[in-house]
Structure formats: structure tokens, C-alpha cells
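Name: Sporulation and cell division protein SsgA
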Amino acid sequence: MTGLDEPAGIGDVRVWPWATPRGDFVALALSSPDGNALFEVPRSVLVRFLRRTYVVVPRGRESEHLDVDAAVNRLLAGR
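Structure predicted for Sporulation and cell division protein SsgA:
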């Protein structure tokens, strides 16, 4: 699960582990020409979420369930 233990991502989406006095978190940074957003998620919550999603769609088999390029193109076209 890339990004949980070391920085990951390039361009507009970046993820990295973030230790705070409140506990271990994962930071998620999104950027676009229209603005930026920074989210922090408790690491344990994100790990549970990812494990559940991998049961539904196994890691590495996402393209069998979703054409990401087509979905992004539809979003960008406003459809």
C-alpha cells in the first residue's frame, strides 16, 4: 500500500506518512490550477479502508472494473 510508509505520487496527487503528536496519519495532497487541498487521515483508518476495497477489487486489477482514462475524460468534458 504505497504511501503508507514512504512518500508516493507525482504531479497532482501525492501521499506520504505523517507522524504527529496525535498519532500516525497519512497526508494526501491534491493540486490543480484551481487550487490545492491537503487531507490527513489516521493511518489505521486508511489501512482498514484499503483492505476492504481490495476484497472488492483486488490490487492491480482495477482496470478490469473501471476504465480510469475514460472516466477522467468524461469528468473533464463535463459529462
